[in-house]
Specification:
Elements lengths: L2 H19 L14 H4 L2 E3 L3 E9 L8 E9 L2 E7 L9 E4 L3 E5 L1 E3 L5 E2 L19 E2 L3 H8 L2 E5 L6 H12 L7 E3 L21 H14 L3 E4 L5 H13 L3 E4 L6 H7 L3 E3 L21 H9 L6 H12 L3 E4 L1 H5 L10 H6 L2 H15 L2 H23 L4 E3 L13 H13 L3 H8 L1 H6 L17 E5 L12 E6 L2 E3 L1 H6 L9
Parallel strand pairs: 2-5, 2-6, 7-10, 10-11, 12-13, 13-14, 14-15, 15-16
Antiparallel strand pairs: 1-19, 2-3, 3-4, 6-17, 8-9, 17-18, 18-19
Helix pairs in contact: 5-6, 13-14, 14-15
Protein name: Amidohydrolase family protein
Keywords: Signal
Pfam families: Amidohydro_1
């Protein structure tokens, strides 16, 4: 037993050494050289690279341009030329005939956590102390990067120090993953069903929490379902004081209230979360899901009430994050996960999800209502954008475990097309719009000379067949090309465990 303290000291010393080795580069300095772990997944790495004969979807919503040559130099897009132009001398040339180059995805609801298993009691209720989610900080960054997500926002954290450390390690080129905007811990009120969240009902507590985590390095914040209105107002003020933005998956506070308080962003869209139209609603109390659903079943997107809400959100410049995959996963009439996705999941995660889907299939009437609600949310998002609103995109890998990091990002874009967006518009939502919200559109989000070489090469033409967005062949982050097959293979069977 006397050897245990020595062993513990040795382990702590080794961890401290690893932390010192993985410090992020100082501002203005080039990133550190990739570690041996990162080099395993690099497919292309050259200071001067010519991507020839490639179709370009630039992320602005403009039509695809055929037969381009894109020059990458020192991690940036140097030039976009006609396909007949000769590559510069000394460039490594990649002939990408039949492939499409598009901006790296900017995932705006991309947790490093996941619903690994739904802990139901015998009576199909969640027993005390509530619903748990699992941090998957090893597998999620790799899967996001493999899908072409080069920048992501965590949009709520249950392990904020883990998320901050993952960002630090990615920035230091010690592990593979996207650039990460870390959201602080959930700003939640009392009566939450998640025991991993705080119970916040005092304004001073909100102020202290936001100030502390802004100091620790959180770059955004998220309010949650049971937060009281006055506490939310304080959190918004404090977040803005620190130069950060705040979003919300709300319930006790409705969309219009939150907009008037100055919130920057609202998650999921209103059909599943906005409580404004629930009759006899009590102040600062979150109605039941059934009450929210019933209030929206009676409304059409074209109705004066909903159109007024859209105008108010647009006028106050409140962005909406579309997370259609997490709602689709509950609809029993929708397709099951592909075999490829199932292979990524741990045995318990897959069992839990399939059991939830089987239970949902036993209630056809409920499935029909859920399908109708999903379609209405799609219609709202299209109307919101057509009215001038800023729509963002993210998969939200929670719910019943049917949304996986990366795979869900592709499905989100496909569902936006189902909603009525053109393919290039849907890609714009998932790229340039996220970059604009994050204040990074001058660096990422579109394929333009001078911007960071955060790009995705896919087989086929997503501007004609949006499902081709799944055919990811190379992901460039800061001009370095990663192998998506190797990234996903390295975490196969791990989603839900690590």
């Amino acid at each position: 037993m006397r050897h245990i303290p020595l062993l513990l000291a040795g382990l702590l010393g080794a961890l401290a050494h690893m932390q010192l080795q993985a410090q992020p580069p100082a501002p203005g300095r080039l990133p550190q050289a990739p570690s041996a772990e990162v080099r395993k997944f690099i497919k292309v790495d050259a200071p001067l690279l010519a991507l020839t004969h490639v179709r370009v979807i630039d992320g602005t919503g403009a039509p695809a341009r055929e037969d381009r040559t894109v020059i990458l130099r020192d991690g940036r897009i140097d030039a976009i030329l006609d396909g007949a132009a000769a590559p510069p001398g000394g460039a490594q040339v990649l002939d990408l005939q039949g492939r499409t180059l598009m901006p790296g995805l900017v995932g705006m609801h991309n947790h490093l956590m996941y619903t690994a298993s739904i802990n139901l009691d015998e009576d199909d209720r969640i027993p005390p102390p509530g619903f748990f989610v699992t941090e998957i900080a090893f597998s999620a960054p790799r899967m996001y990067l493999a899908a072409g997500v080069t920048t992501m926002r965590t949009t709520g954290s249950i392990e904020p120090y883990t998320d901050l450390n993952i960002r630090r390690l990615v920035d230091a080129n010690q592990i593979p993953g996207p650039h990460i905007d870390v959201t602080g811990p959930y700003l939640e009120g009392r009566a939450s069903s998640f025991p991993q969240m705080t119970a916040m009902d005092e304004r001073e507590q909100a102020r202290r929490t936001v100030a502390f985590w802004a100091g620790e390095g959180a770059t955004s914040f998220k309010a949650y379902m049971n937060i009281p209105a006055d506490v939310l107002a304080t959190a918004i003020t404090e977040a803005h004081k620190h130069g950060t933005k705040i979003t919300g998956h709300l319930c006790s506070v409705d969309y219009r209230q939150a907009a008037r308080l100055g919130i920057d962003n609202l998650e999921h869209g209103p059909v599943f979360t906005d409580t404004e139209f629930v009759p006899n609603r009590k102040k600062d109390v979150c109605p039941s899901g059934a009450e929210i659903s019933a209030s929206w079943e009676k409304l059409e997107v074209s109705s004066p009430e909903v159109q007024s809400l859209i105008r108010d959100l647009v006028a106050r410049k409140v962005a909406i994050t579309s997370t259609l995959p997490v709602f689709e996963s509950f609809v029993a009439t929708r397709p099951l996960l592909s075999k490829k996705q199932m292979a990524m999941m741990s045995a318990e995660s897959l069992r839990s999800h399939l059991a939830a889907r089987a239970a949902a299939a036993a209630n056809p009437a409920r499935a029909a209502r859920q399908e109708a609600a999903l379609k209405k949310e799609m219609a709202f998002e299209l109307a919101f954008v057509r009215a001038g609103g800023l729509l963002l995109a993210g998969p939200d890998p929670t719910g019943n475990g049917g949304v996986l990091p990366g795979f869900g990002d592709h499905r989100e874009v496909e569902l936006l097309v189902e909603a009525g967006f053109t393919p290039v518009e849907a890609i714009q939502v998932a790229t340039a719009n996220g970059a604009r919200y994050l204040g990074k559109l001058d660096r990422i989000g579109t394929v333009e000379a001078g911007k960071n070489a955060d790009l995705v090469v896919v087989g086929g033409d997503p501007s004609r067949r949006i499902q081709d967005i799944e055919n990811v062949e190379i992901v460039f982050k800061d001009g370095v090309g990663y192998d998506p097959v190797k990234l996903n293979a390295s975490v196969r069977g791990m989603v839900g465990t690590r």
